[in-house]
Structure formats: C-alpha cells, structure tokens
Amino acid sequence: xxxxxxxxxxxxxxxxxxxxxxxxxxxxxxxxxxxxxxxxxxxxxxxxxxxxxxxxxxxxxxxxxxxxxxxxxxxxxxxxxxxxxxxxxxxxxxxxxxxxxxxxxxxxxxxxxxxxxxxxxxxxxxxxxxxxxxxxxxxxxxxxxxxxxxxxxxxxxxxxxxxxxxxxxxxxxxxxxxxxxxxxxxxxxxxxxxxxxxxxxxxxxxxxxxxxxxxxxxxxxxxxxxxxxxxxxxxxxxxxxxxxxxxxxxxxxxxxxxxxxx
Length: 262
Fold this sequence. Notes:
alpha/beta; 11 helices; TIM Barrel; 8-stranded parallel barrel; two-stranded parallel ribbon
C-alpha cells in the first residue's frame, strides 16, 4: 500500500510567503496541502485557489470545511471554481463542525442545529457537490465519535480518524473498526500532532509536552527519525489501512525525508 503525506498549512501575511510555502511543500514531496476553515484564519477557498496557481501538482483540500457554515449551493460554487483553477486537484475535506464552532456559525448567520441536523447538512453538501461538480472531487470527512465515524464511512471517499493528543494505538484501532463497519474499503488518514519530543506551539500552550506524549505512547506523535517515521507509517498502513499521514506545518522539513522511504 502506498502511503502519502499531507500538510495542514495556514497562509502567512503576504501573497509571496504563501506562494513560497506551497511551492516548498510540493518540492519536498507532500501530496496535498490542507487549509483550515475558521473565522480567525484565511478563508480556505481563496487560499487554495492561490495555491493552485503557485504549485501545479500538489492537491488542495479544505481541512475541514464546517458543513453548518455554508449552504450546499455555496460549497458547490466554490468547489467548481477550485476544480477549474486547479485542473481538478481539489479535495473536499468536510466535517460537522468542531466543538465551539457554534459561535462562528452564528456570526455568519447560519443555524448550528443539533448533531443529527448537522449530519444531515453535511450529507446535503456532499450530495450536491457530487452531483454538480465536475470532475467530482474526492470527499474526505474528519470524524471522531462512534456515530460520526459510521456516517463518515458511509458518505466519504476518505475518512480522517480524528484523535486527541493522548490517544493510544487502541484508540486508533477502535476508530478504524467503527469506520470499517460501514465501509470496509474506504481510505483512511491519521493526523499527527508532533514529531519526536516537539509539539506545535498551540498544543504547548494547552499544557501538552511532546516528550510526555511520546513516553505515554501517543499514537499521534511521530518518531523523530525519518526512517522510524516511515516504519511507523508502513505499520499503520498494513495493520489499519491508514494510507495518509497529515503533518503539522511546523515539522514539514523534519518529516520530508520519510516520504521517499515509504
């Protein structure tokens, strides 16, 4: 099984810095660039449109689009534009909305809704994109709870098993099992939180220590050595079918040598 690596990246303060960042990721061998969807970061669709022009090969994904914040028609319009500007490299990363995002939906004038209503909204968006956007973009759904993982297996082409920083190998196995109940063959992704003894600054501010997470056996901490990263990626691919590793932008240079080893 081929394993690919993707990067979660947020545009810097200038056009040039974003262009250089995306080109660097492409040159390092990363398969996809993933842009978050929050009200305190750059909107993902124009950011990905700029990335499409800057780098001609890397794939472009929202990470993840909060379904309650846009109507299906709005997402279709943006997806069509990105498919056109990127020659079909767009990937619809979508979810029902992270905890705390209800306030952002309210600021946009959108109804947050119950959990079941948000799932229905997500399915409506996915259906509309699949019916109206050509070429049809792959759908990647991030999910964590038992119900959302089951839904993800049913509606998505790829499922990102969302785990907390302290998640164990057993937690990953449980998440994968829930997905496989509804979709035995769906592709799977796992987002890493840190490398070696290092975690991104936002996690450090929350009191997480990279060394403590690693020593506790956190499954979302990558080893510090590229060969060990490649070994871990192959092991997860063979055991769980996880064929994509999502890397924080803080550690792209440390992880890049592992890409050629898998």
